[in-house]
Amino acid sequence: MNAKKVLGIVGMPGSGKAIARKVAEELGYGTVVMGDVIREEVRKRGLKATPENLGLVMIEIRRKFGPNVVAERSVEKIKQLKQGVVVIDGIRSLEEVEFFKKFFPDLKVIAIHSSPKTRFKRLMMRSREDDPKGWDEFCERDKRELKVGIGEVIATSDFMIVNEGTKESLRENLVKVFEEAIKDG
Fold first, then answer.
1. Which CATH architecture has domain 5-180?
2. How far apart are CA 15 and CA 119, in angstroms?
3. pLDDT > 60? residue 2
């Protein structure tokens, strides 16, 4: 058994997961970004980190190695962290939740929800290399995410934060929910 307290973050692209990760780091928690596993795989294959390539690799490695492949690779990263509290950014399926619970039985899942319109605006402003370039691409990415099972994780999460306001408002909500989730275990 592992003595770490582990909190999982789930949310559609642009919902606020990166801010949750930053808040966790500011609080001294360890963080693991599941999307980094996909980005590493894309780099290994010599591909450009486009939304299409990331989406295809995400689905392909799950098909080839099983639905828990990203979680498996993330557990190793979590175990290496020294912090007693670790936040996982980017859980995408109930299978991943169950897999993490084998190692961290007190895992609490925190969903961050924002409307598609709000998320699209944020992604357009963020302009990361793997962000969609338009509404159609945004909708395709959402469909890929939903196919993997992210909606089920959001629906069954232990905590829900609606993020339609300011970054400061999200930060305040995250601190409260993190504290509550840590006590709740």
1. 3-Layer(aba) Sandwich (3.40)
2. 6
3. no
